[in-house]
Automatic annotation (TrEMBL):
SUPFAM superfamilies: UDP-Glycosyltransferase/glycogen phosphorylase (SSF53756). This is Glycosyltransferase involved in cell wall biosynthesis. InterPro entries: DUF1972, Glyco_trans_1, Glycosyltransferase_grp1. Pfam families: DUF1972 (PF09314), Glycos_transf_1 (PF00534). Residues 9-179 form the DUF1972 domain. It comes from Algoriphagus aquaeductus.
Protein backbone atom coordinates (compact mmCIF):
# COMPACT_ATOMS: atom_id res chain seq x y z
CA UNK A 1 0.00 0.00 0.00
CA UNK A 2 1.36 3.45 -0.92
CA UNK A 3 2.36 5.60 2.05
CA UNK A 4 0.33 8.82 2.31
CA UNK A 5 2.13 11.96 1.19
CA UNK A 6 3.70 13.78 4.14
CA UNK A 7 1.96 17.01 5.05
CA UNK A 8 4.16 20.09 5.21
CA UNK A 9 4.10 21.63 8.69
CA UNK A 10 5.04 25.33 8.99
CA UNK A 11 5.44 27.39 12.17
CA UNK A 12 5.00 31.17 11.86
CA UNK A 13 6.15 33.68 14.46
CA UNK A 14 7.30 37.28 14.99
CA UNK A 15 3.96 39.14 14.75
CA UNK A 16 1.16 39.59 17.27
CA UNK A 17 -0.65 36.46 16.18
CA UNK A 18 -3.72 35.06 14.48
CA UNK A 19 -6.44 36.22 13.89
CA UNK A 20 -5.26 39.49 15.51
CA UNK A 21 -5.20 41.84 12.49
CA UNK A 22 -3.52 45.08 13.49
CA UNK A 23 -0.51 45.77 11.29
CA UNK A 24 1.04 44.64 8.03
CA UNK A 25 2.66 41.50 9.41
CA UNK A 26 -0.54 40.40 11.18
CA UNK A 27 -2.48 40.86 7.94
CA UNK A 28 0.10 38.85 6.01
CA UNK A 29 -0.04 35.98 8.51
CA UNK A 30 -3.84 35.90 8.24
CA UNK A 31 -3.91 35.99 4.42
CA UNK A 32 -0.98 33.60 4.02
CA UNK A 33 -1.91 31.19 6.80
CA UNK A 34 -5.51 30.69 5.64
CA UNK A 35 -4.39 30.07 2.04
CA UNK A 36 -1.71 27.58 3.10
CA UNK A 37 -4.27 25.63 5.15
CA UNK A 38 -6.53 25.53 2.07
CA UNK A 39 -3.59 24.00 0.17
CA UNK A 40 -3.23 21.21 2.73
CA UNK A 41 -0.38 22.69 4.79
CA UNK A 42 -0.42 22.34 8.58
CA UNK A 43 0.07 25.89 9.88
CA UNK A 44 0.98 26.85 13.42
CA UNK A 45 1.03 30.50 14.50
CA UNK A 46 2.63 31.69 17.74
CA UNK A 47 0.37 34.26 19.41
CA UNK A 48 1.21 36.83 22.09
CA UNK A 49 -0.58 35.30 25.06
CA UNK A 50 -1.33 38.72 26.66
CA UNK A 51 -3.32 39.87 23.59
CA UNK A 52 -5.74 36.93 23.58
CA UNK A 53 -8.41 36.63 26.26
CA UNK A 54 -9.90 33.56 24.55
CA UNK A 55 -7.33 30.98 23.52
CA UNK A 56 -8.78 28.29 21.26
CA UNK A 57 -6.23 25.75 20.01
CA UNK A 58 -7.46 25.87 16.40
CA UNK A 59 -8.98 28.81 14.49
CA UNK A 60 -10.01 28.31 10.83
CA UNK A 61 -7.72 25.29 10.65
CA UNK A 62 -4.69 27.19 11.97
CA UNK A 63 -3.07 25.87 15.15
CA UNK A 64 -2.56 28.67 17.67
CA UNK A 65 0.12 28.48 20.38
CA UNK A 66 -0.10 31.20 23.04
CA UNK A 67 3.40 31.95 24.27
CA UNK A 68 4.27 34.47 27.00
CA UNK A 69 6.64 37.44 26.71
CA UNK A 70 8.41 39.99 28.89
CA UNK A 71 5.82 42.76 28.60
CA UNK A 72 7.80 45.96 27.97
CA UNK A 73 8.02 48.34 25.02
CA UNK A 74 11.43 47.12 23.86
CA UNK A 75 11.37 43.46 24.97
CA UNK A 76 7.85 42.18 24.23
CA UNK A 77 8.44 41.19 20.62
CA UNK A 78 11.97 39.85 21.04
CA UNK A 79 11.22 37.78 24.14
CA UNK A 80 8.06 36.39 22.53
CA UNK A 81 9.95 35.22 19.43
CA UNK A 82 12.76 33.76 21.57
CA UNK A 83 10.31 31.61 23.57
CA UNK A 84 8.34 30.69 20.42
CA UNK A 85 11.52 29.68 18.60
CA UNK A 86 12.52 27.33 21.43
CA UNK A 87 9.05 25.77 21.41
CA UNK A 88 9.09 25.31 17.61
CA UNK A 89 12.58 23.79 17.64
CA UNK A 90 11.46 21.11 20.11
CA UNK A 91 8.41 20.31 17.95
CA UNK A 92 7.89 18.38 14.70
CA UNK A 93 7.46 21.39 12.38
CA UNK A 94 9.28 21.15 9.05
CA UNK A 95 9.93 24.85 8.47
CA UNK A 96 10.03 27.90 10.76
CA UNK A 97 8.97 31.20 9.16
CA UNK A 98 9.81 34.37 11.09
CA UNK A 99 8.83 37.97 10.35
CA UNK A 100 10.71 41.12 11.42
CA UNK A 101 14.47 41.59 11.06
CA UNK A 102 14.70 42.36 14.78
CA UNK A 103 14.35 38.60 15.25
CA UNK A 104 17.47 37.97 13.18
CA UNK A 105 19.67 36.57 15.99
CA UNK A 106 17.15 33.83 16.89
CA UNK A 107 17.89 32.03 13.64
CA UNK A 108 20.96 30.68 15.43
CA UNK A 109 18.70 28.60 17.72
CA UNK A 110 17.04 26.93 14.73
CA UNK A 111 20.45 26.37 13.12
CA UNK A 112 21.65 24.51 16.23
CA UNK A 113 18.53 22.32 16.11
CA UNK A 114 18.82 21.80 12.36
CA UNK A 115 15.40 23.30 11.58
CA UNK A 116 15.02 24.96 8.13
CA UNK A 117 14.13 28.66 8.41
CA UNK A 118 12.97 31.66 6.38
CA UNK A 119 12.67 35.28 7.53
CA UNK A 120 10.79 38.24 6.06
CA UNK A 121 12.99 41.19 7.04
CA UNK A 122 10.66 44.08 6.07
CA UNK A 123 11.98 47.68 6.01
CA UNK A 124 15.05 49.67 7.00
CA UNK A 125 14.25 49.52 10.72
CA UNK A 126 17.64 50.90 11.76
CA UNK A 127 16.89 54.20 9.97
CA UNK A 128 13.55 54.82 11.69
CA UNK A 129 13.68 57.88 13.98
CA UNK A 130 12.12 55.96 16.89
CA UNK A 131 15.17 53.66 17.10
CA UNK A 132 17.81 56.19 18.02
CA UNK A 133 21.22 55.20 19.37
CA UNK A 134 21.33 51.66 20.73
CA UNK A 135 18.00 50.67 19.12
CA UNK A 136 19.25 51.61 15.64
CA UNK A 137 22.53 49.74 16.22
CA UNK A 138 20.62 46.67 17.40
CA UNK A 139 18.34 46.60 14.32
CA UNK A 140 21.26 46.97 11.93
CA UNK A 141 23.13 44.15 13.70
CA UNK A 142 19.98 41.97 13.91
CA UNK A 143 19.30 42.45 10.19
CA UNK A 144 22.87 41.39 9.43
CA UNK A 145 22.44 38.31 11.68
CA UNK A 146 19.24 37.44 9.80
CA UNK A 147 21.28 37.12 6.61
CA UNK A 148 23.73 34.74 8.35
CA UNK A 149 21.49 32.53 10.48
CA UNK A 150 18.38 32.00 8.32
CA UNK A 151 18.36 29.66 5.36
CA UNK A 152 16.20 31.97 3.22
CA UNK A 153 15.86 35.76 3.45
CA UNK A 154 12.67 37.22 1.96
CA UNK A 155 12.23 40.86 1.01
CA UNK A 156 9.01 42.46 -0.16
CA UNK A 157 10.41 44.72 -2.89
CA UNK A 158 13.16 44.77 -5.51
CA UNK A 159 14.59 47.92 -3.95
CA UNK A 160 14.90 46.22 -0.53
CA UNK A 161 16.60 43.24 -2.18
CA UNK A 162 19.14 45.68 -3.64
CA UNK A 163 19.74 47.24 -0.20
CA UNK A 164 20.40 43.83 1.40
CA UNK A 165 22.75 42.85 -1.40
CA UNK A 166 24.67 46.10 -1.03
CA UNK A 167 24.83 46.24 2.78
CA UNK A 168 25.06 42.57 3.73
CA UNK A 169 26.13 40.84 0.49
CA UNK A 170 23.11 38.56 0.78
CA UNK A 171 20.62 37.85 -1.98
CA UNK A 172 16.96 37.32 -1.14
CA UNK A 173 13.69 36.13 -2.61
CA UNK A 174 11.34 39.01 -3.43
CA UNK A 175 7.75 38.24 -2.40
CA UNK A 176 5.52 41.30 -2.02
CA UNK A 177 2.53 41.76 0.25
CA UNK A 178 -0.85 41.15 -1.31
CA UNK A 179 -3.85 43.44 -1.70
CA UNK A 180 -7.61 42.96 -1.47
CA UNK A 181 -9.07 45.41 -4.01
CA UNK A 182 -12.66 46.57 -3.54
CA UNK A 183 -14.91 48.59 -5.82
CA UNK A 184 -18.20 50.39 -5.17
CA UNK A 185 -17.74 51.09 -1.46
CA UNK A 186 -20.72 52.86 0.14
CA UNK A 187 -20.02 56.42 1.32
CA UNK A 188 -22.36 56.08 4.31
CA UNK A 189 -19.69 55.49 6.98
CA UNK A 190 -17.83 58.76 6.25
CA UNK A 191 -20.88 60.76 7.41
CA UNK A 192 -19.85 59.61 10.91
CA UNK A 193 -17.18 62.34 10.68
CA UNK A 194 -19.31 64.85 8.70
CA UNK A 195 -17.25 64.22 5.59
CA UNK A 196 -18.34 64.39 1.96
CA UNK A 197 -17.11 62.18 -0.87
CA UNK A 198 -14.03 63.79 -2.53
CA UNK A 199 -14.12 66.54 0.10
CA UNK A 200 -10.97 65.50 1.96
CA UNK A 201 -7.38 64.33 1.73
CA UNK A 202 -6.41 61.21 3.68
CA UNK A 203 -3.39 60.00 5.67
CA UNK A 204 -3.41 56.45 7.11
CA UNK A 205 -0.63 55.18 9.35
CA UNK A 206 0.94 55.23 12.78
CA UNK A 207 1.71 58.71 14.10
CA UNK A 208 5.47 58.26 14.10
CA UNK A 209 8.09 60.60 12.60
CA UNK A 210 9.10 58.28 9.72
CA UNK A 211 5.58 58.44 8.25
CA UNK A 212 5.95 62.22 7.93
CA UNK A 213 2.41 63.22 8.95
CA UNK A 214 3.89 66.41 10.47
CA UNK A 215 5.37 67.44 7.11
CA UNK A 216 2.13 66.69 5.22
CA UNK A 217 0.00 68.56 7.78
CA UNK A 218 2.30 71.60 7.70
CA UNK A 219 2.33 71.74 3.89
CA UNK A 220 -1.41 71.14 3.59
CA UNK A 221 -2.29 73.87 6.08
CA UNK A 222 -0.09 76.31 4.12
CA UNK A 223 -2.09 75.58 0.97
CA UNK A 224 -5.22 77.37 -0.19
CA UNK A 225 -7.27 74.14 -0.09
CA UNK A 226 -10.81 74.35 1.28
CA UNK A 227 -10.95 70.57 1.70
CA UNK A 228 -10.18 68.71 4.93
CA UNK A 229 -7.15 66.62 5.81
CA UNK A 230 -8.20 63.44 7.64
CA UNK A 231 -5.51 61.65 9.66
CA UNK A 232 -6.33 58.02 10.49
CA UNK A 233 -4.09 56.30 13.02
CA UNK A 234 -2.36 56.91 16.32
CA UNK A 235 0.32 55.36 18.51
CA UNK A 236 -0.47 52.72 21.16
CA UNK A 237 1.54 54.56 23.82
CA UNK A 238 1.88 58.10 25.24
CA UNK A 239 4.04 60.09 22.84
CA UNK A 240 4.81 63.81 22.85
CA UNK A 241 5.52 63.98 19.10
CA UNK A 242 2.08 62.54 18.29
CA UNK A 243 0.37 64.67 20.96
CA UNK A 244 1.93 67.82 19.52
CA UNK A 245 0.38 67.03 16.13
CA UNK A 246 -3.03 66.32 17.65
CA UNK A 247 -2.96 69.70 19.44
CA UNK A 248 -2.78 71.64 16.13
CA UNK A 249 -5.96 73.70 15.84
CA UNK A 250 -7.37 74.16 12.34
CA UNK A 251 -10.93 73.53 11.11
CA UNK A 252 -9.56 71.69 8.07
CA UNK A 253 -7.74 69.11 10.21
CA UNK A 254 -9.44 65.96 11.54
CA UNK A 255 -7.78 63.23 13.64
CA UNK A 256 -9.93 60.10 13.80
CA UNK A 257 -7.56 57.97 15.89
CA UNK A 258 -7.56 54.25 15.07
CA UNK A 259 -10.36 53.11 12.74
CA UNK A 260 -10.84 49.39 13.37
CA UNK A 261 -14.09 48.86 11.45
CA UNK A 262 -13.00 47.60 8.00
CA UNK A 263 -16.08 49.11 6.29
CA UNK A 264 -15.39 52.55 7.77
CA UNK A 265 -11.75 52.36 6.71
CA UNK A 266 -12.74 51.20 3.22
CA UNK A 267 -15.13 54.14 2.91
CA UNK A 268 -12.49 56.64 4.07
CA UNK A 269 -10.07 55.35 1.42
CA UNK A 270 -12.62 55.00 -1.37
CA UNK A 271 -14.13 58.48 -1.07
CA UNK A 272 -11.06 60.64 -0.41
CA UNK A 273 -10.06 63.22 -3.01
CA UNK A 274 -6.43 62.16 -2.61
CA UNK A 275 -4.53 59.71 -0.40
CA UNK A 276 -1.23 61.03 1.01
CA UNK A 277 1.58 58.50 1.56
CA UNK A 278 4.51 59.82 3.59
CA UNK A 279 6.05 56.49 4.66
CA UNK A 280 9.80 56.70 4.27
CA UNK A 281 11.63 53.51 5.33
CA UNK A 282 9.82 50.46 4.01
CA UNK A 283 9.41 48.17 1.07
CA UNK A 284 5.92 47.19 -0.10
CA UNK A 285 3.62 49.17 2.18
CA UNK A 286 0.19 47.70 3.11
CA UNK A 287 -1.43 51.16 3.42
CA UNK A 288 -0.32 52.02 -0.13
CA UNK A 289 -1.69 48.68 -1.40
CA UNK A 290 -5.03 49.50 0.24
CA UNK A 291 -5.01 52.92 -1.45
CA UNK A 292 -4.45 51.29 -4.86
CA UNK A 293 -7.04 48.60 -4.14
CA UNK A 294 -9.68 51.14 -3.12
CA UNK A 295 -9.01 53.25 -6.21
CA UNK A 296 -7.31 56.29 -4.67
CA UNK A 297 -5.45 59.09 -6.38
CA UNK A 298 -2.08 58.96 -4.59
CA UNK A 299 0.45 61.63 -3.65
CA UNK A 300 3.57 59.92 -2.24
CA UNK A 301 6.87 60.95 -0.73
CA UNK A 302 9.58 60.55 -3.35
CA UNK A 303 11.50 57.45 -2.20
CA UNK A 304 12.83 54.47 -4.20
CA UNK A 305 10.23 52.22 -2.50
CA UNK A 306 7.29 54.47 -3.40
CA UNK A 307 8.65 54.88 -6.93
CA UNK A 308 8.66 51.09 -7.27
CA UNK A 309 5.13 50.65 -5.93
CA UNK A 310 3.65 53.41 -8.11
CA UNK A 311 5.65 52.29 -11.16
CA UNK A 312 7.71 55.46 -11.39
CA UNK A 313 4.77 57.85 -11.51
CA UNK A 314 2.31 55.78 -13.51
CA UNK A 315 -0.06 55.50 -10.55
CA UNK A 316 0.64 58.61 -8.51
CA UNK A 317 2.50 61.88 -8.06
CA UNK A 318 5.50 62.49 -5.81
CA UNK A 319 6.42 65.26 -3.39
CA UNK A 320 9.76 66.08 -1.78
CA UNK A 321 10.43 66.02 1.96
CA UNK A 322 9.64 69.72 2.33
CA UNK A 323 6.45 71.44 3.49
CA UNK A 324 6.60 73.77 0.48
CA UNK A 325 6.59 70.76 -1.87
CA UNK A 326 3.46 69.42 -0.13
CA UNK A 327 1.75 72.82 -0.43
CA UNK A 328 2.55 72.96 -4.16
CA UNK A 329 1.34 69.42 -4.89
CA UNK A 330 -1.95 70.04 -3.01
CA UNK A 331 -2.64 73.14 -5.08
CA UNK A 332 -1.64 71.32 -8.29
CA UNK A 333 -3.95 68.40 -7.42
CA UNK A 334 -6.85 70.82 -6.87
CA UNK A 335 -6.19 72.57 -10.15
CA UNK A 336 -6.30 69.24 -12.03
CA UNK A 337 -9.42 67.35 -10.86
CA UNK A 338 -9.58 65.45 -14.17
CA UNK A 339 -6.07 64.04 -13.62
CA UNK A 340 -7.02 62.98 -10.08
CA UNK A 341 -10.08 61.25 -11.54
CA UNK A 342 -7.86 59.42 -14.06
CA UNK A 343 -5.53 58.28 -11.27
CA UNK A 344 -8.51 56.92 -9.31
CA UNK A 345 -9.88 55.06 -12.32
CA UNK A 346 -6.51 53.43 -13.08
CA UNK A 347 -5.32 52.80 -9.52
CA UNK A 348 -6.28 49.11 -9.39
CA UNK A 349 -4.24 48.47 -12.55
CA UNK A 350 -1.21 49.13 -10.33
CA UNK A 351 -1.98 45.92 -8.43
CA UNK A 352 -0.02 43.66 -10.73
CA UNK A 353 0.19 39.90 -10.16
CA UNK A 354 2.93 40.20 -7.54
CA UNK A 355 0.43 41.93 -5.20
CA UNK A 356 -2.16 39.15 -5.54
CA UNK A 357 -2.51 37.19 -2.26
CA UNK A 358 -3.04 33.85 -4.07
CA UNK A 359 0.18 34.41 -6.01
CA UNK A 360 1.99 35.52 -2.83
CA UNK A 361 0.88 32.36 -1.00
CA UNK A 362 2.02 30.18 -3.91
CA UNK A 363 5.47 31.80 -3.84
CA UNK A 364 5.81 31.24 -0.08
CA UNK A 365 4.71 27.63 -0.47
CA UNK A 366 7.45 27.07 -3.06
CA UNK A 367 10.05 28.45 -0.64
CA UNK A 368 8.78 26.33 2.28
CA UNK A 369 8.70 23.13 0.19
CA UNK A 370 12.25 23.69 -1.01
CA UNK A 371 13.46 24.28 2.54
CA UNK A 372 11.71 21.13 3.77
CA UNK A 373 12.83 19.07 0.75
CA UNK A 374 9.21 18.11 0.03
Amino acid sequence: MATPEKKLKVAIMGAKGYPYVYGGYDTMIKELGERLVAKGVQVRVYNHRALFKDRPRFVNGIECIYTPAIESKSLTQLSHTFISMLHACFSDVDVIFVVNSGNGPFGLIAKIFGKPTAINVDGLEWLRPKWKGLGAKYFFWASKMATQFYDQVINDSDEMRRVYLELFQKDSEVIAYGANPRESVDAGPIKHWDLESRGYYLIVGRLVPDNNADLIIEGFLKSASKKKLVVVGDVPFADEWANRLKRIQDPRLLFTGYVTDPNELAALYSHCYVYFHGHEFGGTNPAMLKALGYGCAILALDTPFNQEMLQNGKHGWYFEKKAESVKEIVEKAESEPETMCDLRQNARLGLTQKYNWDYVAERYLEVFRQLANL
